[in-house]
Amino acid sequence: METLxxxxxxxxxxxxxxxxxxxxxxxxxxxxxxxxxxxxxxACAELxxxxxxxxxxxxxxxPDGTRMEHPTVRQVxxxxxxxxxxxxxxxDLAIYGGGPAGLSASVxxxxxxxxxVLVERFTVGGQAGxxxxxxxxxxxxxxxxxxDLAERAREQAAKFGTEILIHRAGVRGxxxxxxxxxxxxxxxxxxxxxxVCATGxxxxxxxxxNEDKLFGAGVYYGAGASEAQLCGNxxxxxxxxxxxxxxxxxxxxxxARKVTIVMRGERLNDNVSEYLVDxxxxxxxxxxxxxxxxxxxxxDVMLQAVTLRNCDTRQERTIETSFLFLCLGGVPNTExxxxxxxxRDEEGYLxxxxxxxxxxxxxxxxxxxxxxxxxxxSMPGVFAAGDVRHGSIKRVASxxxxxxxxxxxxHRYLASG
Length: 417
Fold this sequence. Notes:
Helix content is 24%, strand content 24%. It is an alpha/beta fold. It starts with 6 loop residues before the first strand and ends with a helix.
């Protein structure tokens, strides 16, 4: 792929606004240079600012010389030419969520002639896009970063004609047999014959005081690919015991003085692939603290320390750190489904196909004579794919497979109408 000139991002450490832009650029696979300002003199010399507390920070300088002061992520996307309005009044297929499942559905849908639009609330890639390296995805024996994989998929989808609307989210929907109408948060309305929900999951929160306040200022959700190089000579804490947290810990260990994995379980092997367990156990600057949870976050403007509690002994200890990464499993993004009456399981995941009989035994929500297709929700013409679906396997490969499979059922649905 063509190497583009880098965007330069200036800001001070612990700035949530700077983190949001840095995270967007990293996950979008856009070359950028982070310039951390640490003194008033540097701020003046580099940017002509009076001090580090200048309200114009962070500042983005683009390859064409454009300078944007205290920009939002939306403004950055507009400058990059990535923010656009839908070109059609109606589509064959609307896909909500730009992770592996949504991108896969958009590639197969558009390549097979469906007028396709994909809506993503932040940037393409979903949680997979935050992974520093995916090693068990078919066809990439040396591994590939989540951002690179997502960018390749985005290019592929666009090549086949998918319209991609980023930094947008659906706020309400009305679905009936033959048509879906979804209002986006910027007032845009999308109409489509078929809808695919691939909205994935949100990382679970700790639910502690200061957590929201310190987000982007020491508290991060996911693998922290954009923050790894900022962790030099630091002790960082990773909470969670899945493949994503193990892979992130290995990546962080290349830069940090020490990586501490905190987990509720007894053994890393219970939820992590064997090849990752072996690497973690043989990385000297990674320690594992089992049967432990985080119970307090310390710091006013930036994270300064975390308090841990042993689940068995109830003993507590405090670790000084400026970096806490949380990979705590997911909460599905399906509140919209509750509002329109689409069947969900007890955790909020969308129920599809044959599983509907278990969660909706009287078939009260299904009005057609035929059985629902395998990936079809209780609303005819609304499908689900990837992590948001009840019973899905939380792997990139399975999400890509479900996205592709969904299009086969979409064609059946359209042909039957």
